Amino acid sequence: MITQQHIIRDERASGLLEMMLVFxxxxxxxxxxxxxxxNYPQLGGDGLHIAHTLWGGLGMLVSIALLLSFWNPAMRQFxxxxxxxGFGFFVDELGKFIAADVDYFFQPxxxxxxxxxxxxxxxxxxxxxxxxxxxxxxxNRNIIAMMSAEGDTSRINRFYTHIxxxxxxxxxxxxxxxxxxxxxxxxxxxVAIGQIIxxxxxxxxxxxDSTSERHIPxxxxxxxxxxxxxxxxGVILTSPHTLYHSxx
Length: 248
Description:
Helix content: over 70%
Largest sheet: none
């Protein structure tokens, strides 16, 4: 039986988990963009369809096998990236598993994926914020010392770190402009206005195709209302008046 004394956490686990999530999100974007550009092709024939969730399962299986087989930091980084890609392939077809008609284009799927990755991101942050015990620190030092001769980074990790640094610099350069906050807030104000009009229209049923619109799931109404509320809240927090009082 495993007890707390037998659990040894990896001090670099938060970085590996973060890499996995980033590769998963990037994979979903790539898949959706590729399918849209190629008019949604299907692998298979003669009544067969090889769903890309199967490739996701294969990627996650190989990733698990690598993590169970090797201690090498470079191999673990590769496994984290491969596991993220596999999870992206798998979860991209979430709509097929929750819709009664097995619909890949089930509208709430994107919102559910967003919520899922937010929860996973918060879970990773919580796991990474917990301090290691003295025994865990000692075990990590011993493992790192044994692996140091081979090197603790891989090409994937160096590529990932380089892209992350470039994106961080680009983001900081963008948000440091004085025009960024006003333009960003204005754009979201128009989005909020559009969503408010959509909510009112859906609730009142005054649409050209009221029969179909009235069958929109309650989840979409709630999602539109919540996203609009967050937009308004964010605009208020980033308004010049609010920022002035927060720094005074």
